[in-house]
Design a protein that fits this description.
Layout: H1 3-13, E1 18-24, H2 30-43, E2 47-51, H3 62-73, H4 78-91, E3 96-99, H5 102-108, H6 110-119, E4 124-126, H7 136-144, E5 148-149, E6 152-153, H8 159-168, E7 173-176, H9 190-203, E8 209-212, H10 218-227, E9 231-234, H11 236-244, H12 249-269
Parallel strand pairs: 1-2, 1-9, 2-3, 3-4, 4-5, 6-7, 7-8, 8-9
Helix pairs in contact: 2-4, 2-12, 3-11, 5-6, 10-12, 11-12
């Protein structure tokens, strides 16, 4: 059983939903990432997604694009991510997932990238722009490195394609709940909750279902867990707090911890 699978098994035993938190490594600077991640873990985050800054983040909205810009401006490089991941794992017992586009992986070389990831105690990978049809080598090498391959599904994913995705994904299935790009939203449409209900029926008892895009409030978390999600993925709401407190990392950390606590509490309060 992989580390992420074990985490979800433990959450299930406790009747809790999972909180997966995303941050961009190096936002607002490389030294800030470890304490900011620490605040999220102390606030209750069960899994941390570490975004690797890339100059063309096509799936991301303005909030995360700005975070990527701050990270790149601070001089953060992909190799810094591995050092930061190692430091986090030395301090916190939390699964880490690297989220990156394929270009940085390609430039390292897949084998070298995964070797560094494994040495840094990374538990999973998300590479949104790897087509499922071209993922066999990537899947094979990740399996050899004991790193989960987390694939994405969307409202437009056809049943046949979903079967292909389910054959390749491990750790959890990342369900994009809305059309469009990432970004916190004040409300989530009923269509997103219906999508979760449908996917819950399709993947129940096969792989955990984690839902992302737009989530920023405890009532949204509670509703999505009640609809059948095993976890929620929150990124832009956390990244917004970092942006608003970029000159004061201690203040950012306190606010991240408070929001994480509120969101995590909602996963526990939900009617599982």
């Amino acid at each position: 059983m992989t580390e992420i699978s074990q985490k979800f098994a433990n959450l299930g035993n406790k009747k809790e939903g999972g909180l997966i938190a995303y941050v961009t490594v190096g936002d607002p600077n490389p030294d800030a990432t470890v304490p900011l991640v620490g605040a999220l873990v102390e606030g209750g985050a069960d899994v941390i997604e570490l975004g690797i800054a890339f100059s063309d983040p096509i799936a991301d909205g303005p909030t995360i694009q700005s975070a990527v810009g701050r990270s790149l401006a601070s001089g953060t490089k992909p190799q810094d991510v591995f050092k930061i991941a190692r430091t986090i794992r030395q301090q916190y017992d939390v699964p880490l997932v690297l989220m990156t586009y394929f270009n940085p992986v390609f430039r390292f070389g897949l084998s070298k990238f995964l070797k560094l990831a494994k040495e840094s105690n990374v538990s999973g990978m998300i590479v949104p722009d790897i087509p499922i049809e071209e993922s066999a080598e990537y899947k094979r090498e990740c399996l050899a490195a004991e790193i989960d391959t987390i694939f994405l599904a969307a409202p437009s994913t056809e049943p046949d394609r979903l079967k292909q995705i389910l054959n390749q994904t491990s750790g959890y299935l990342y369900l994009i709940s809305l059309y469009g790009v990432t970004g916190a939203r004040s409300t989530i449409p009923e269509s997103a909750f219906n999508l979760v209900r449908n996917y819950h029926k399709l993947v129940s008892d096969t792989i955990p279902l984690a839902v992302g895009f737009g989530i920023s409030k405890p009532e949204q978390v509670r509703g999505l867990i009640n609809a059948g999600a095993d976890a929620v993925i929150v990124g832009s709401a956390f990244v917004n707090l970092i942006a608003q407190n970029a000159e004061d990392v201690d203040s950012a950390a306190k606010k991240l911890k408070t929001l994480a606590q509120d969101l995590k509490r909602a996963t526990v309060d939900a009617d599982h």
